[in-house]
Each structure stands twice: as C-alpha cells, then as structure tokens.
Write a structure and sequence with these properties.
Elements lengths: L5 H4 L22 E3 L1 H4 L6 E7 L9 H14 L4 E5 L3 H12 L3 E7 L5 H9 L3 E5 L3 H14 L3 E2 L5 H7 L1 H10 L5 E5 L4 H15 L8 E7 L4 H4 L21 H10 L3 E5 L1 H15 L5 H15 L14 E7 L7 H6 L11 H7 L4
Parallel strand pairs: 2-10, 3-4, 3-6, 4-5, 7-8, 7-10, 8-9
Antiparallel strand pairs: 1-2
The structure holds ligand F0G.
C-alpha cells in the first residue's frame, strides 16, 4: 500500500476535516525492528523491539505531531508558528512550516542543542533565537508570546501535537497485531508519553487491542523532576533532548505510568551512554543519547528483577517495545567523543593490514 503520511493513514482518529490542508513530509510508518542481539542478554525472558522513530523525515518522532499541528494551524488561518525546543521540535517545526509556507520562530537554550538539530532549524529558514537560559525558560517565553500574538504554539502543549504523535502507538499495534506487554521511552517535556498512552487507550476502546501495555518512562538522573517529585532548577544531562526541569505534561505522564501500572525512573548519563554504544555496536542502530535511555532503562529494570514475577505465568517471552525517538546523526559530537578515533597511516597495503589485524 502507498504510504501517504500519518494524517491520511489514521485520519479517522485525528482532528482533521475534509477542509484541512494537509502538510506532510510522509512521516510515520517507521520500522519496528527486532533487537535480536540485545535480546540475548535477557535469556529468553524478554523479546525486545525497537521503534526507530529516527527514520522520520526530520529524523525524530516530532514529525508525527508536527504534520497535524501545522496542518490544523494552517486550516485555522495561521500565518506563523513558534516553539521552545531542546532541538528536535525546532527542526521539525522549521521543516513543516517551510512546507506549509508559514513563518517559524524557535527559541532554544543557548549552547545546549545538538549540532544536527541546529543545522536543520537554520537551513529550513526558521528564525532561530537562542535564550540565555534553559528549555523551561524558553517555553515560558513561547507560552507568553503566543497567548498575546497571532502565532500558534507548536510545543506539545498544543493538543494537535499529541494527536499526531499517538499514531506511533497505532503502528506498533498494527504491526504486532496485538499490544506489547511493556513500552519503554524517554520522558522530557512529557508530551510523547501522553501521546502514546492516548493512542493505546483509544485503540483499546475501539477494540483494536485487548490489553494496554505498561508504560515505562525514563528521565536522566540530573533532569528527573517527575522522579524527584519537584521541578529541577538547573537540569543537567548529556542527553540534551531531555534536559528539562519542569515538564509541561507532568500530570499526564504520571497518569500514564500509574494507570498502566508502569513507572517513571531515572537513569544515569553513564548508563545512557553504555546503552547508546550497545545499540550502535550490537544492533547497527544509531540513535541520539536521549533515545538510548529506553534500552538503558530496560537493562536496569531487568537486572533489578523487575520483570521476574511478571513473566512467571507464561512460557512465551514478554514483549517490550523501546521507542528510539531521534537519529544518532542529530548529535555527531557525542558519537565522536565516545569513540576511538581513526588511525592515520601512510597509503601502504602493509600498514593497512597491520592496523586491521592481518599482520
Ligand atoms: N527524545 C528526543 C530525541 C527528544 O527530542 C525529546 C523531546 C524526547 C525524547 C522527550 O519527549 O518531551 O515529549 O517527553 N524533545 C523536545 C524538543 C523537548 O524540544 O525537541 P517529550
């Protein structure tokens, strides 16, 4: 079947009408990859799947929400959109605004967004404004300005973003022909966890799935307001995408975790980097650090015995889907920093063979 983007595929579930002008870059329909090598670590107890959202048009899951947010904004006569961003939202907003011929203004924390994301927002022609502050400061500004001026806020506070992003949950169920037992994902501003929970819940209501997955959300240790139970003034983590101290959809994130009988946990930067390298080296999948937190979280819970009691009454492995939210090329600096550098040699066969271990 020809893929025409998430709005056309799931339009009955989305807030669009015949009249909505559809702005799409053919986002969605991302692969659900079986993590055969990492699954070996779990000794048959867990079957791990990876939803590779880095393969969306701007290389993150934000495109699912942005196609709906920008299309609906255009349908309501908007001329401009604005967002605060740790990078991916700005890249996606800039691209979809370009496609929809809208003005786009993005507010980013100065010096704290990954190179690939900055290059996208700039090249797509957004007005990129760096704030001497963090993401939370930028979001406050964006909320204030868009409440006073005719500019549509396209952060995940905008319900159209949630509507679009919930389609990833539909895709997972459509491919598995059931729901997973667990779903693991990073939590930053908490829009995506809200969206997935909404997606699964709607699919259950419609009778498309029988059971709801347990939702496992992960925050970086230095940026874990939900886990700590209070906003973090100066959040820190190498996973810059989720360096957020006061998530806009905090309440919804807690509800998703509690109502699904899942949890929200914190993971150290070291554990994130270990999982980041493991995904690249053992599965051939390149993600940005924030996305690797899903795998790091599952490994941590597995080691703690979290899944032990949960699989005892079944012989088949439990199905866990990890959401890989953004592509590794978004943040090339960290990939290079975490790797050994190329060996420099004279252009001689002997020298190549020696380095390659054949001599
Ligand atoms: N993973 C990546 C790669 C992200 O860019 C984000 C959020 C998340 C996970 C967390 O999703 O905020 O819905 O809980 N990035 C936002 C941005 C904040 O501005 O690009 P969330």
């Amino acid at each position: 079947m020809k893929w025409e983007g998430v709005i056309k595929h799931y339009r009955n579930y989305l807030p669009v009408t015949e009249k909505t002008p559809i702005v799409t870059l053919l986002e969605g329909n991302t692969p659900l990859i079986s993590a055969n090598n990492i699954s070996k670590e779990f000794k048959g107890k867990i079957k791990l799947y990876l939803k590779y959202e880095g393969l969306n048009p701007t290389a993150s899951f934000k495109d699912r929400g942005m196609t709906v947010a920008v299309s609906c904004a255009l349908g309501r006569g908007a001329k401009a959109v604005m967002c605060a961003s740790t990078g991916n939202t700005s890249a996606s907003a800039a691209a979809y605004a370009a496609a929809g011929e809208l003005k786009c203004i993005v507010l980013i924390p100065k010096g704290a967004i990954a190179l690939g994301k900055l290059s996208q927002a700039l090249l797509h022609g957004a007005k990129v404004i760096a704030i001497e502050g963090n993401f939370d400061d930028a979001l406050e500004l964006a909320k204030g300005i868009t409440s006073k001026y005719p500019i549509t806020l396209v952060n995940s506070l905008n319900p159209d973003r949630i509507e679009g992003q919930k389609t990833a949950a539909f895709e997972i169920c459509d491919i598995l022909e059931t729901s997973p037992n667990y779903q693991a994902m990073p939590v930053g501003n908490a829009g995506n966890i809200t969206a997935y929970w909404k997606g699964y819940s709607e699919y259950k209501e419609k009778g498309k799935i029988k059971n709801l997955p347990k939702i496992l959300g992960f925050q970086a240790s230095g940026s874990a307001p939900i886990v700590e139970g209070h906003p973090i003034k100066n959040p820190q983590t190498i996973a810059t995408a989720i360096r957020i101290g006061n998530p806009a959809r905090w309440k919804e994130a807690v509800e998703a975790a509690e109502n699904s009988n899942g949890l929200i946990e914190k993971i150290s930067d070291e554990e994130i980097l270990t999982a980041y390298k493991m995904l690249a080296k053992r599965e051939g999948i390149f993600v940005e650090p924030a996305s690797a937190i899903s795998i790091a979280g599952i490994i941590k819970l597995y080691k703690r015995g979290y899944f032990d009691s949960r699989s005892s009454n079944s012989h088949s492995p439990i199905k866990i889907v990890c959401i890989l939210t953004g592509h590794g090329l978004k943040d090339p600096d960290i990939a290079i920093k975490e790797s050994s550098q190329p060996v420099v040699i004279p252009p001689k066969e002997e020298a190549v063979l020696e380095v390659a271990g054949y001599k």
